[in-house]
Design a protein that fits this description.
Keywords: Cell membrane, Membrane, Transmembrane, Transmembrane helix. It is found in: Cell membrane. InterPro entries: ABC3_permease_C, Membrane_comp_ABC_pdt. It is a multi-pass membrane protein. The strands form two sheets. The chain has a six-stranded mixed β-barrel with strand order 2-3-8-5-7-6. A six-stranded mixed β-barrel has the order 12-14-19-16-18-17. It is an alpha+beta fold.
Length: 840
């Protein structure tokens, strides 16, 4: 018989393919779930990134932004800015808003806010939307407040507010601040006044912590990216920060990219897990077609003919599953945006993004090829006699061509995952961990099958039947263990992460954290500050440190401005960071290399660097570090490396200088106050009365903000991981389906010998129960280890899970998977012995 042409093979495949995909529904479902998840995550990430790019001018407030802290640009620099286009200046700082008069309800008399001074040209792009009127340039005595500030202080339009030495009248309530996203993370609600009004407060003093931003609406002759790069090179040593409209919110971009990458890896892991279900589903389908395949071979069909017919069938269903997943993944982002509300930085509209859709489709095709090839290869290569004996005899192994094709597909899958990842090493670690867990569970499955075969036969028939089902011909023990193990491991991992995060934010952090952080204390008034704080809370523990801001501009022989890309993990090279000086080793630090300078040291500049930062930059004791502070570059020798214990919730700095280096620079000091929370209100009032310019941060409010962010992240991870759980369930269903035909013969024989349905179901329950107990122990170990790694190594938190919740989740997951297994066994109970025996 000559080889079938593709048209003839498709005609046979189409006639044999059931309209409802009977037998191949699992293939469709698994590919649909995996591809839809990847496409939705990729499309949502691209939509947010594109929206940030499209709204760059509005988010930034200009085409170019030049920022600096604790100072303003010189008149000459401002003139140079104006030569590029229209200029707008803003000054932003944290400041305490004090209510004058009575507020509504039990509102506090003062809260921390973000006070922003703007000039007459503000805003260059967009509009400042107000509740009661149209924005016009403000007088020195006017102020606009955000709705959050209005609600918390219980005040409205016409109320009076005090900032420092100045009194303001609330002219209106801010509905929308056009450049809000470009301002970054804030610790309090916003208030906007004029630059002259801000200066009237007296809050801007030498050493005060404030940031100045100059936004430029460029003349059409200039290109924003070119101007930014030119200024960065020209002013690399002055500690300025530069943004353009194409990178208006780099922090938001980085967060979205990394979160999208992480969720995409979870989706890819779910798709790989679903691939096992794909393989089981196709194996089950081909097992049902065994007699037909054998008959075609007896009639002269070649191995290539068989391969063509069933590859066309499987390929058609796979393509439909991938296509359906792409459609759902493309239209799902608008629904996610609507449900997320204000959680996302922007709310993008509906738009198709070909690249993530194409990448998701390619993932789906590679997974489909990789996991459907083994059962198709067995059907192609096994002789007809072996196929007829397939119910009682299974042949394993592949020919060299099949192994080569599967190897190429696997390598392409890994290459695609690493090639599209922003952090290939992180992606490789995640995929490696998933692969290791799969191999471990597969090894456990093989070991269980061999051990069950060697165990002595129990006297109780149902226990004997349960053990026999674990190693009998056609048993899907390995696949069942992979499915059950993955699902239970994910349940434990998610429970461990969530309960540990909750314990850290609600229990561990508050115990370590001070009650208040006080900023902008005049350096000359430290003793007065101590006296006032002790008077309000005699038992209070105070930690006072000098505070400056600086930018690392060079390390060793490297200039940061010359780097095409920052080293991985070098977050401290982005913009300005907190800098301090100390005669003694700071609290919360451990010296790991070098020596600390003497308390009376008066020599050349020395600096102590965080050990992790030193490893990231590849430098150590004796190397040079250049830092720009207040526009002046200081080159210091690294005298020591410290391990910074960031979880102490005190003041922790990457850079600590010798005192002689910075003592003469204008600066303020900051303090933490650890005390009974009952003293918070009295302490705040006393400090504001003595120091109108200080900012008092209630650490509990910050903890609540961080907790809200972590909760949002855990929910996103939970949603993505739920797809992996569904994939594990699909693997379980596929394993049950693959073993259904061989189990049906057992059911018929046992029924013929007098077994009842309840007894058959009891045997199945005992089998799945034994596997569940075994895998509960494995899943508890694997899931706890994975959750520990995320909490301790990724978040650097304390490992403090709620074991009751974890064990309860594990038990619930075990009962769920056990129920699914029993539900899959129910169709076997309805098989009629007479009909089944006639088909043998």
């Amino acid at each position: 018989m000559s080889r079938l042409v593709w048209r003839a093979a498709w005609r046979i495949a189409r006639r044999d393919l059931h309209l409802g995909f009977r037998g191949l529904r699992l293939l469709f479902l698994c590919l649909f779930l995996g591809v839809a998840t990847l496409a939705a995550i990729g499309s949502l990430t691209s939509a947010i990134t594109q929206e940030l790019r499209d709204r760059g001018r509005l988010i930034l407030g200009g085409d170019i932004e030049i920022g600096m802290t604790q100072r303003e640009a010189s008149l000459g620099d401002k003139q140079a800015f104006r030569q590029l286009g229209a200029l707008s200046q803003t000054i932003r700082m944290r400041a305490m808003a004090q209510r004058v008069g009575q507020g509504r309800g039990n509102a506090p008399p003062a809260i921390l806010t973000e006070l922003k001074g703007v000039d007459a040209a503000y805003p260059l792009y967009g509009a400042l939307a107000l509740r009661h009127g149209i924005y016009r340039p403000l007088d020195a005595g006017d102020i606009l407040i955000g709705d959050a500030l209005s609600q918390r202080l219980g005040i409205g339009r016409g109320a009076k507010l005090r900032y420092g030495d100045a009194l303001f009248i609330v002219r209106d309530i801010i509905v929308d601040e056009p450049d809000r996203l470009g301002e970054g993370f804030t610790l309090g609600p916003v208030a906007i006044t004029s630059l002259s009004g801000l200066r009237r407060t007296g809050l801007i003093q030498p050493g005060s912590l404030y940031s100045t931003k100059y936004r430029i609406r460029l003349d059409p002759r200039y290109d924003a990216a070119t101007v930014r790069k030119d200024w960065e090179k020209a002013r690399a040593g002055e500690g300025w920060t530069f943004k353009d409209r194409d990178r208006a919110a780099p922090g938001a971009n980085r967060f979205i990219d990394r979160m999208g990458q992480f969720l995409s890896l979870i989706g890819l892991a779910a798709l790989v897990i679903a691939g096992i279900g794909v393989s089981n589903g196709v194996a089950s389908y081909l097992a049902g077609k065994r007699n037909g395949i054998a008959t075609l071979k007896v009639l002269g069909a070649s191995a290539a003919d068989i391969a063509r017919i069933y590859r066309l069938q499987v390929g058609a269903v796979a393509l439909l599953g991938i296509a359906a997943g792409l459609v759902v993944g493309a239209v799902l982002p608008p629904l996610v945006v609507a449900l997320a509300g204000d959680v996302l930085p922007v709310s993008p509209g509906f738009r198709l993004f070909p690249l993530p859709l194409a990448t998701s489709a390619l993932y789906g095709l590679l997974i489909a090829f990789l996991f459907t090839f083994p059962p198709l290869a067995r059907a192609r290569t096994q002789p007809a006699a072996a196929l007829f004996r397939g119910a009682i005899e299974r042949r394993s192994g592949f020919d060299r061509r099949s192994l080569a094709a599967m190897t190429v597909a696997g390598l392409l899958l890994v290459a695609l995952a690493l090639g599209t990842a922003g952090d290939p090493l992180f992606s490789a670690a995640v995929l490696g961990a998933v692969g290791a867990v799969l191999l471990l569970l597969l090894g456990i499955g093989i070991a269980v099958r061999r051990i069950a075969r060697r165990l002595p036969r129990p006297r109780r028939p149902w226990l004997r039947l349960a053990l026999a089902n674990l190693h009998r011909p056609g048993a899907q023990t390995a696949a069942l263990i992979v499915a059950l193990g993955l699902a239970l491991t994910l349940f434990v991992t998610l429970a461990g992460i969530e309960t540990s995060l909750d314990a850290e934010i609600r229990q561990v952090v508050p115990k370590k954290a001070p009650a208040q952080i006080v900023l902008d204390i005049p350096a000359s008034q430290q003793q007065r500050f101590r006296t006032i704080a002790r008077a309000q809370a005699p038992e209070a523990q105070l930690n006072i440190v000098p505070v400056l801001r600086g930018t690392i501009t060079g390390y060793g022989d490297t200039r940061v401005a010359d780097l095409a890309q920052l080293p991985e993990g070098a977050w401290f090279l982005r913009g300005e960071r907190g800098v301090t000086y100390s005669a003694a080793l700071p609290e919360g630090s451990d010296l790991v290399a070098g020596t600390w300078w003497p308390t009376d040291y008066r020599g050349p500049p020395l600096v102590s660097l965080d050990a992790e930062a030193a490893r990231t930059l590849g430098i150590g004791v004796g190397d040079r570090l250049t830092v720009s502070i207040l526009g002046r570059e200081i080159t210091a020798r690294i005298a020591s490396l410290r391990k910074v214990n960031w979880d102490t919730m005190g003041f922790n700095y990457v850079l600590v200088f010798s005192p002689v280096t910075l003592q003469s620079a204008p600066h303020s000091v900051a303090a933490t106050i650890t005390m009974d929370p009952r003293h918070d209100t009295a302490m705040t009032r006393a400090l504001l009365a003595a120091f109108p310019g200080v900012s008092v941060i209630a650490v509990g409010d910050v903890i609540d903000q961080v907790g809200a962010i972590l909760t949002q992240m855990s929910r996103a991870i939970l949603v993505a991981a739920s797809v992996a759980i569904l994939a594990g369930i699909a693997v379980l269903v596929g394993a049950i389906a693959a073993a259904r035909q061989s189990r049906s013969y057992d059911s018929v024989i046992l029924k013929t010998l007098g077994a009842t349905r309840l007894q058959l179901l009891g045997g199945q329950a005992l089998e799945y129960g034994l596997l569940s107990v075994l895998l509960a122990v494995v899943a508890l170990a694997l899931g706890s280890a994975a959750a520990w790694f995320v909490i301790v190594q990724v978040f650097d938190f304390t490992w403090s899970p709620d074991w009751v919740v974890m064990l309860g989740t594990l038990a619930g997951g075990a009962f769920l998977t056990l129920g699914i297994g029993l539900a899959g066994a129910l169709p076997l109970l309805s098989v009629r012995p007479a009909r089944a025996l006639r088909q043998v």
